[in-house]
Write a structure and sequence with these properties.
alpha/beta; 2 domains; 15% strand; 4-stranded parallel beta sheet; globular; Rossmann fold; 13 helices
Length: 377
Amino acid sequence: MSVSDPISSESPAVEARFSEQEVADIDRLIPSADRPVNAPESHPEVVRGKIGVVIVNLGTPDATDYRSIRRYLSEFLSDKRVVDYPRWLWQPLLQLVILSRRPFISGKAYASIWDKQRDESPLLTFTRDQAEKLGAVLKESLGDRVEVDFCMRYGNPSTDSVLRRLNEQGCERILFFPLYPQYGSPTTATANDQAFRSLMKMKWQPALRTVPAYFADPGYQAALAATVTEAYASAESRPEVLVASYHGVPRRFLEGGDPYHCQCHKTSRLLRERLGFADNEIITTFQSKFGPETWVGPATVDKVAELARTGKKHIAVISPAFASDCVETLEEIEMEIREAFIEAGGETFTYVPCLNARDDHIHALAAIARRELAGWI
């Protein structure tokens, strides 16, 4: 028996030193699931020792009516990470001008993709499915100690409510997993900001880790490539160009050091290499421009029209920045951008769905989560 291991279970002599009563006394001192060590019998029950994993998506309105859309857009567009104009300038313009008419336009877009049977947006459905499947995979490999949930940066279920619930369920450590493959300050950073703001309200904070950008993860890239291969196999004819369309950001974000633009281009390059495509078979574009300033480009809607005018009859579009299909993919790409391509002379438009709750995507997310949980489990 070594000095560093004074009560090694391998030593019969040591085991003999403890009577049954002494063993019972030692067991009594081990923290239980309902009462802290040395607490009186009247102490309230405390569930401890669990680990939470929270996947985070952008958000969704609760309904498609004017008030629901306005409430959602107000929260979203008031975020300084999204629109960083001075508050004294931006808020009057937002509340008095933009939000007086924008909810009608956005409401129509959401209504066109709304799941009327469940009365929810596809983003909410897909994110819930992802959380349920991820929970099943992680519990299979890590056990019941892990609790998996999901939240939204804007709208419901809110980040604050989910982190508070996990804390009350005894999660002393939480892995916060923004579903943004590429890091961006208006996406990853604001999601993390909200998580830490939630911790500021807690008397007993759990330890919290955040998952970094994962666009280069082999599992994620393999799942992304598989969606393209499947879409090409089922297409009427092979698309001449694959357009990788990412959500845009103002150009000054890139100039200010935000790595999002560069990571988008790297995502496309890695995808091209995995697929074995030639350089001219995949191009990178950006969508969803908002406001008058210069944004990174080229704009997806303009580029697909240009491709049609220059003789490309069949293209495919994929959205590698979105982990789940949402209004930006199901309405903007499937409807608006498709229409721009067809009106410019294109003939066949193939949309490659987001990874959503595909098994290969879920297993990729599970592998990332297990890696980031190292040392906790």
